[in-house]
Amino acid sequence: MNASFTILAIGVIIFLAHWFSGIFDRKGIPDVLLLMLVGILFGPILNMVKPDDFGIAGPLFTSLTLVIILFEGGIGLNINELRKSVGGALSLTLVNFFVTTVAVSVLTYLMFPLSVLESLTLGATLGGTSSAVVIPMVRQISIQEVPKTYLILESALSDVLCILFALAFIEGITGGEVHPGFIVGKIISSFVLASIVGFVAAVGWAIILNRMRTIKNSIFTTPAFVFIVFGIAETLGYSGAISSLVFGITLVNIEYLRNTFLNKYLPAEPVLLNETEKVFFSEIVFLLKTFFFVYIGISIRFDNLLILGLGFLIAVILYLLRFPVVKLTAGNSIQEADKVTMSIMIPKGLAAAVLAGIPLQKGIAGGQIIQDLTYSIILISILITSVMIPLLGRYKQLIPILGRFFRFPLINVKRSPKH
What we know:
By secondary structure, the protein is mainly α. It has helices at residues 3-27, 31-45, 57-74, 79-111, 116-125, 131-140, 145-173, 180-212, 221-235, 240-252, 275-299, 305-329, 336-344, 350-356, 358-361, 367-394, 398-403. Helix 5 packs antiparallel against helix 7 (145-173).
């Protein structure tokens, strides 16, 4: 593809993205799905562009997209809603991760010539949800703040679990040992220390933010600082994703620290992101999201229809298992309609796509199966989520039908009465 055609394609895709966004507002057809279809058209169908054509720019671009989307997701969270949601979000994340990992591991071990550790690697790879899909979608649909916060936090927290467990299993396959205690300790330290990095960075940035605004053309300095925070956290071996999210949460809620010992370090004038900055960040997210989903579409492979079909079967089973997971972890205060939405919101994305390629790179026997199956489940899960969410909004009668999953005796967990 020559330079002039590439520039033309970029311009057309941006205009298409705005058109698709309007279609979502009017018709309820998600722009995420339409953007992926554009990528599939340019990539697997017409073979005009391949993932390899992007070189190192492809993985770098997806990481930048994740950082900005998580930061923008963080600045949309209120500390009061966060307090109500963090315990439930952690429960949802852990239960969903382990249920998904076990289910995928068992199914793929039975369906494919994979070893136990290879199946566990695939299960851990698919154990989370995609921030890049979840956060933009929950911003566009009608859902209460608490379940919205659940989903945003789950999408960020689950990435850490996926990465650490999948890499540990891969290490076991390539000749090392799997140490459960080490994995748990690594997860806890990654969460806690990454949060500390994000929090300290946000406080430091809040102290100098008003001064930075006096510099000409400084509006991009906040996203640039988020990149620095992400890079520092990753270099130290912590989760850059969690640091980016915590940075955004802390920065937008910095005024709540006025009643703490940190008040003496904060400037006297309020530290708030102004509307111009919020609109600018929103525009960045829009552009990055646009090209991210086109890139995902380009990366999908259709050369193995058997794996695509089995991927569809596994994805459907994961959606069915999500209902008891939500039943077990969501509080009684969450409405049935929102619980149904939470049950549908399990698309796979960036972390799964990155992890899926590592076994193949390391020469693991089942690496090609792991990668192809992961890519097929990414496509199918995004497709199911993108189709079901607008259907629930348009046809309200579907909510009580799907809500029956919460009322099955098998998964109807009753709380013991208080004495």
